[in-house]
Write a structure and sequence with these properties.
With about 210 residues, the protein is mainly beta. It has one domain. The protein is built from 3 helices and 13 strands; from the N terminus they run E-E-E-E-H-E-E-E-H-H-E-E-E-E-E-E. A 6-stranded antiparallel sheet has the order 1-13-3-11-6-5. A 5-stranded antiparallel sheet has the order 2-12-4-8-7, covered by helices on one side. The longest helix is centred in the middle third of the chain and has 11 residues. The relative contact order is 0.34. The structure holds zinc ion.
């Protein structure tokens, strides 16, 4: 496990350090005002992230609305992430990586059966669904609601989406100020057949910090 790097140059206290094993998902509640940190524990790993408003889970993080509100494909430091009602839910304070994908859905069973002919492959959607049930949530997880954190997708000059190896190393993190009370979930993507996770899915962590 990497040594936690505190947000805001150390002016924050670690409240929760939730390990997310490779291929699995974990959920937690985060109140407004905390800093949520998504950590790549071992390096070269993508995490698929979902968030719902705690008081009304019919409102949730929407990668598509975020791209629309920001008029950009990849949120950067200082940008906010928006809900399906265009409410800002999170604000990026620091980002060690800078590559994310807010366009494609998370991987699902059909991704592996249709594209690779493999049935019963671990996938982000099913892991998120299992994690949600374990956390007592009755949400139906939809792949298009997942933001692909640290995914190194680029748009080529021909307009194609190309998946490359994530370049970040162990301990890389993104820090986001939580703007509304949220329930969040993260899955450590199990894709081992493309450069998405450098062909070797590994673990991640969700950390909650209280600013001092
Ligand atoms: Zn995945």
């Amino acid at each position: 496990m990497s040594e936690p790097r505190a947000p805001r140059d150390g002016a924050a206290v670690l409240e929760t350090d939730l390990f997310v094993p490779a291929r699995e998902a974990r959920f937690l509640e985060v109140p407004a005002g905390r800093i949520l940190q998504i950590v790549d524990v071992e390096g070269h790993q993508v995490g698929d992230f979902v968030a719902f408003r705690a008081g009304d889970r019919s409102e949730y993080l929407s990668p598509a609305h975020t791209c629309s509100c920001l008029t950009k494909l990849i949120p950067q430091v200082g940008d906010r992430l928006y809900s399906n009602h265009r409410t800002p839910l999170l604000e990026i304070e620091r980002d060690d990586v800078g590559t994310h994908d807010f366009v494609v859905p998370c991987c699902d069973a059909e991704r592996y059966s249709v594209d690779y002919g493999i049935h019963d492959h671990a996938n982000c959607r099913d892991s998120l669904q299992r994690g949600a049930v374990e956390a007592g949530l009755d949400e139906r997880i939809r792949g298009e609601l997942a933001a692909n954190i640290f995914m190194h997708n680029v748009v080529t000059s021909e307009g194609r989406i190309e998946t490359r190896r994530p370049e970040q190393v162990a301990g890389a993190a993104i820090d986001m100020l939580v703007l509304e009370d949220l329930v969040v979930g993260l899955v450590a993507c199990p894709q081992d057949l493309s450069p998405c996770n450098d062909f070797d899915p590994t673990s991640m962590a969700l950390r909650v910090w209280r600013p001092e």
